[in-house]
Amino acid sequence: MKRVLVIGAGGQIGSELVPFLRKKYGNENVIATGRRTKLPETITEHGPWMYLDALNQDSLKKVIYEKSIDIVYHMASILSATGEKMPQTAWDININGLINVLEVSRRYDVERVIWPSSIAAFGPTTPRENTPNETILQPTTMYGITKVAGELLAEYYFKKYGLLTLSMRLPGIISSETPPGGGTTDYAVEIFYEAIKHKKYTCFLREDTMLPMLYQPDCLQCHLDFAEKDPSLFKRHVYNVTGMSFTAGELVAEIKKHIPELKVEYKPDFRQEIADSWPKSIDDSLARKEWGWNPKYDLAAMTKDMIEKLSKRLK
Ligand code: AKB
User: Fold this and answer.
1) pLDDT in tens, 61-81
2) Residues 93, 76 contacting (CB under 8 angstroms)
3) CA-CA 20 to 30 A from 177: which of 18, 44, 278, 314?
4) Are the beta carbons of 73 and 11 closer than 8 angstroms?
5) Quick one: which H or E segment has residue 50?
6) Is 143 a catalytic residue?
């Protein structure tokens, strides 16, 4: 059985990725680690977990060596909006953390390192509609700069040392367990909480802002596919993935089918400029063709499922 390390297990994706991977690899074989966010009981009660700071190479070495890790998921990251407030911290966590993970992984014979990139790797000079996998990467945010640098760094470790590195360029992730923090696409999660709790929401992006998104179950499947699929299927190290694209107004209209009383105001803030520099929609045909990416959720199915899950949880 594979031994898996998840760095950043307290985050929006990590907190659901750990239980998902434990179903596949067994509770004891998936080690959850965190640094800042408290790990949820769904993680700490069912399998191994510990404090780990990816900026500390010695503690990374210790856990990868002692636990004979085969697969590393490096999920710890500062997102786009926080990155604009603290650019140097974003560089430190996103890049110095990543190079430590890559360096220790290649020294201790880790089989695969899976590290999410983002649509933030694209910028205003990239074609914004149906953005191809291979295209111009000139981001204008610090977060985006760390994603482009990270993609190149991960590929370098493959070319130089043969360490298999795989990255998906994630769009906004919509999920019902752990809210995201510090991103530009966060509105698409916040709105569900506010719609259910208060029937009103003030959106920090304009109504006509269109962004690509992905629902958590599809996101988790993508992470598992990167660990499980035959390496020969991957013809590149970075893949565009997407599940849907919608404007803030289209999301509101869809939620109103379930919660007609919802009232939304639009008050764009500094995150509007970030959103305007990103693609509206993504071409993920290479992921579909090369390793069988096949997301299940569209806007209607995601909205229905989010409202059902969150309504139960918030009660
Ligand atoms: C963000 O909004 O910063 C992230 C992302 C698209 O990578 N969700």
Assistant:
1) 999 999 999 999 999 999 999
2) yes
3) 278
4) no
5) strand 49-51
6) yes
Predicted TM-score (pTM) above 0.85: yes
How high does pLDDT run on average in the chain?
A: 98
Distances (CA, A) of 170 to 84, 116, 180, 195: 19, 7, 13, 25
Cα distances from 47 to residues 22, 31, 74, 121, 224, in angstroms, run 8, 7, 18, 34, 18
**Which neighbouring-strand residues pair with 31?**
5
Ligand 1 site, residue 118, Cβ cutoff 6 A: yes
Model confidence over 171-191: pLDDT tens digits? 999 999 999 999 999 999 999
State pLDDT tens for residues 244-274: 999 999 999 999 999 999 999 999 999 999 9
> Fold for domain 4-173+215-240?
Rossmann fold (3.40.50)
CB atoms within 10 A of CB 269: 10
Domain ranges of the chain: 4-173+215-240, 175-212+244-314
**Nearest CA owner, ligand 1 atom 4:** 183
The pLDDT of residue 282 is: 98
Given 25, 73, 143, 239, the catalytic residue: 143
Ligand 1 atom nearest residue 118's Cα: 7
CB of 12 closer than 6 angstroms to any ligand 1 atom: no
Top-level class of domain 175-212+244-314: alpha beta
